[in-house]
Amino acid sequence: DAMVIQNPRYQVTQFGKPVTLSCSQTLNHNVMYWYQQKSSQAPKLLFHYYDKDFNNEADTPDNFQSRRPNTSFCFLDIRSPGLGDAAMYLCATSNPDGGRPYEQYFGPGTRLTVT
Amino acid sequence: GENVEQHPSTLSVQEGDSAVIKCTYSDSASNYFPWYKQELGKGPQLIIDIRSNVGEKKDQRIAVTLNKTAKHFSLHITETQPEDSAVYFCAASNLGSQGNLIFGKGTKLSVKP
After folding, report:
1. Which residue among A8, A39, B25, B107 has its CA within the 20 to 30 Å range from the CA of B54?
2. Does the pLDDT at position B94 exceed 90?
3. Residue B40 pLDDT more than 80?
4. Nearest to A43 among B41, B42, B44 (CB)
């Protein structure tokens, strides 16, 4: 089945130690999003890629970076994780040129713990 | 920018009863309103959506209504079942711009058998 895959599902990192979260998709969608979701809160958009064009939200901290080497993969890099960065990180995709251009498909998320 | 308010934050109903979750939005340019269901440990899943040129949409036991004048939209679940228990998020988007979703804070729905 076509889907959005996130690895790992659970990640533990130390305060200040760089960490990378991975997202891959088999949907061949040209837009990929990264959201941060803290406990009992709504997902908050960090940034998204439209093909290779990177779009950063104005309030996304510089500590968060992203890479999209090809259509299928997108990475979230947290350069120096703080305790406040502990959250669920959700990857989503959409296909603006497709039959349902506005629908976003979410992966299962990676739960990040910072110790 | 857009702001989406969602109420209630928690909702408990008996199996078979109806559940209603309400959202308001601030940006009159928003024209797409999806509802997502998020089960524990999983990513959000789209359950129903509505565009601003439609006032109501129904899919089996779930329906969404939109009042553009008042800038509010609601999710209605009839004949609730225990498997409907989850967190539900509303969202708003302006498809003419980047199309980014702005989410409400979520409603935790519990359906008691």
Report:
1. B107
2. no
3. yes
4. B44
DSSP letter at B60 equals: T
Starting from the edge strand earliest in sequence, which strands make up the sheet with B4-7, in order? Answer: B4-7, B19-25, B72-77, B62-67, B56-59
CA-closest candidate to residue B67, choices B77, B78, B56:
B56
Q: How far apart are CA B105 and CA B90, in angstroms?
A: 8
Q: How many angstroms separate the CA atoms of B11 and B110, rounded?
A: 6
Q: What are the mean pLDDT values of chain A's consecutive 10-residue runs (115 residues total)?
A: 87 96 94 93 92 92 96 96 96 84 88 96
Distance CA A96, CA A74 (A): 18
What residues contact B48, with CB distance under 8 A and at least 6 apart?
B34, B35, B57, B59, B62, B63, B64, B75
Token pair in block for residue A19: 């960490």
Residues 78-107 of A with CB under 8 A from B: 90, 92, 94, 96, 101-107
Q: Per-residue confidence at B98, pLDDT binned at 50, 70, 90? A: low
Give the pairing of strands B32-38 and B45-51.
antiparallel
Chain A contacts of B100, Cβ < 8 Å?
Answer: 45, 48, 57
CB contact under 8 A, B41 and A40: no
Rg (CA), chain A: 14
Quote the pLDDT of residue A109.
95
Chain mean pLDDT for chain B? 93
Distance, in angstroms, between A15 CA and closest chain B CA?
24
